Model the fold of this input.
Amino acid sequence: MNRYNVAILYGGKSGEHDISLMSASSVEKHLDKNRFNVHLIGITMSGKWFYQPDYKNTNDTLDIEEDEKNIISIIPGKGFTVNNTDLNIDFVFPILHGTYGEDGTVQGLLDLINIPYAGSGLDGSFMAMDKEFAKILWQNRGLPVVPFISFKKHQYITNPSMVISEISNKFDYPLFIKPVKAGSSVGVSRVSCQSELSEALEKAFTFDLKVLIEPAVNAREIECSVIGNNSPQTFSLGEIAPSHEFYDYEAKYLDPNGAKLIIPAQIDKAIIQEMKKLAITAYSTLKYYSWFYKY
Done:
């Protein structure tokens, strides 16, 4: 049986670099080595791509060895090369979190060099990564979304008092401040009063040039996985019950007791069906086609 050459891209330039190292370790461990030749390509915080020919995956996180002789070149029509040698990659797992990974940039690059990859394409990745853009599209489809406003960094630098005043006039406290294009709760703050706004805004603006502001909602956090292209399907709903004030970065990745994961979520059957219907509509609106997007 022929074995496919599969590349795992990991690391990256975003603030979620370390999370990618953990995710990629898990993916590598679960790939069937009898079916796939696994090639690791680590991307540093500075954006350099390094081939990892002698990797060891013995921990819960992967390292990136920065050996200049193993720097990756990408050539249209040829794909990935190292020292003028083709890697002949058949398929890519872009296990990259945040900007320069989940936002359509890498997906567009792989499209240009005609290498199939896991996950959504350029358009779906871009639309889903931008929280404000996604919410506007969902509103236009008639989906319920939490109210929001956004501000650009230059607006805050030019007139911080105006930004703070508009936020306070728009929403009651508590509220959330988020970078528009970031995940893993990086740069997110829960704000209880106006005096906390400046610090939260400045924190969010270190990760993005635009921030999203939403009122806090006292509700259960239910998630629904969706996969598929032309006929999406859903799975059992799960509930996240954080032990922290909210499901922040620490609760997700650092505190082993940061949240209780309840699967399946204990919800009335009629509500489950309604939530699955909403999830498929949200998914399809963003063209968020799933694993094995191209062949």
